[in-house]
Amino acid sequence: MKKTAKWKDRVHTSIEVTTYAIVAGTVLMLLFSQHLFAGIFNALFGKTMVLVYLGVFPGALAYLSWSFALSTVQASIVSSFLFLVPLLTLEGY
Questions:
Q1: Residue in 71, 61, 77 with CA at minimum distance from that of residue 5
Q2: Which of 1, 22, 25, 5 is nearest to 64 (CA)?
Q3: Which end of the chain is more exposed for a tag (fewer CB within 10 A), N or C?
Q4: What pTM does this model have?
Protein backbone atom coordinates (compact mmCIF):
# COMPACT_ATOMS: atom_id res chain seq x y z
CA MET A 1 0.00 0.00 0.00
CA LYS A 2 1.04 3.55 -0.62
CA LYS A 3 2.11 5.49 2.47
CA THR A 4 0.42 8.87 2.96
CA ALA A 5 1.39 10.56 6.22
CA LYS A 6 4.28 10.47 8.63
CA TRP A 7 3.79 11.28 12.32
CA LYS A 8 6.62 10.91 14.81
CA ASP A 9 8.74 8.65 12.58
CA ARG A 10 5.84 6.26 11.94
CA VAL A 11 4.34 5.99 8.48
CA HIS A 12 0.57 5.54 8.25
CA THR A 13 -1.42 4.15 5.34
CA SER A 14 -4.32 6.03 3.80
CA ILE A 15 -6.84 3.70 5.46
CA GLU A 16 -5.32 4.42 8.89
CA VAL A 17 -5.44 8.17 8.30
CA THR A 18 -9.07 7.92 7.16
CA THR A 19 -9.95 5.91 10.26
CA TYR A 20 -8.28 8.48 12.51
CA ALA A 21 -10.24 11.25 10.79
CA ILE A 22 -13.55 9.43 11.26
CA VAL A 23 -12.86 8.73 14.94
CA ALA A 24 -11.73 12.32 15.59
CA GLY A 25 -14.85 13.68 13.87
CA THR A 26 -17.06 11.38 15.91
CA VAL A 27 -15.46 12.38 19.19
CA LEU A 28 -15.69 16.09 18.37
CA MET A 29 -19.34 15.78 17.32
CA LEU A 30 -20.15 14.17 20.67
CA LEU A 31 -19.52 17.58 22.24
CA PHE A 32 -22.73 18.80 20.55
CA SER A 33 -24.87 15.78 21.46
CA GLN A 34 -26.37 16.75 24.79
CA HIS A 35 -29.74 15.10 24.06
CA LEU A 36 -28.40 12.26 21.93
CA PHE A 37 -29.06 9.35 24.26
CA ALA A 38 -32.53 10.57 25.26
CA GLY A 39 -33.40 10.91 21.57
CA ILE A 40 -32.07 7.45 20.74
CA PHE A 41 -34.02 5.75 23.52
CA ASN A 42 -37.24 7.61 22.67
CA ALA A 43 -37.03 7.05 18.90
CA LEU A 44 -38.77 4.21 17.13
CA PHE A 45 -36.59 1.20 16.36
CA GLY A 46 -37.20 1.36 12.61
CA LYS A 47 -36.20 5.01 12.39
CA THR A 48 -33.08 4.36 14.43
CA MET A 49 -32.07 1.52 12.10
CA VAL A 50 -32.58 3.77 9.07
CA LEU A 51 -30.17 6.31 10.57
CA VAL A 52 -27.64 3.60 11.41
CA TYR A 53 -27.88 2.30 7.84
CA LEU A 54 -27.40 5.79 6.38
CA GLY A 55 -24.43 6.42 8.64
CA VAL A 56 -22.65 3.13 8.10
CA PHE A 57 -23.15 2.20 4.49
CA PRO A 58 -23.06 5.41 2.45
CA GLY A 59 -20.79 7.30 4.86
CA ALA A 60 -18.26 4.73 5.98
CA LEU A 61 -18.12 2.88 2.69
CA ALA A 62 -17.56 6.15 0.85
CA TYR A 63 -14.60 7.00 3.09
CA LEU A 64 -13.16 3.51 2.77
CA SER A 65 -13.49 3.48 -1.01
CA TRP A 66 -11.96 6.97 -1.16
CA SER A 67 -8.97 5.87 0.91
CA PHE A 68 -8.58 2.72 -1.18
CA ALA A 69 -8.62 4.77 -4.37
CA LEU A 70 -6.03 7.14 -2.93
CA SER A 71 -3.80 4.23 -2.00
CA THR A 72 -3.80 2.84 -5.54
CA VAL A 73 -3.98 5.92 -7.81
CA GLN A 74 -2.54 9.43 -7.67
CA ALA A 75 -4.58 11.99 -5.73
CA SER A 76 -4.93 14.29 -8.74
CA ILE A 77 -6.63 11.55 -10.75
CA VAL A 78 -8.91 10.49 -7.90
CA SER A 79 -9.94 14.05 -7.09
CA SER A 80 -10.96 14.69 -10.69
CA PHE A 81 -13.70 12.09 -10.22
CA LEU A 82 -15.30 14.30 -7.54
CA PHE A 83 -16.88 16.27 -10.36
CA LEU A 84 -18.95 13.19 -11.22
CA VAL A 85 -20.74 13.18 -7.85
CA PRO A 86 -23.41 15.79 -8.76
CA LEU A 87 -24.02 14.13 -12.12
CA LEU A 88 -24.41 10.68 -10.58
CA THR A 89 -26.66 12.12 -7.85
CA LEU A 90 -28.98 13.62 -10.45
CA GLU A 91 -28.92 10.36 -12.41
CA GLY A 92 -30.06 8.42 -9.34
CA TYR A 93 -32.72 10.99 -8.51
A1: 71
A2: 22
A3: C
A4: 0.46
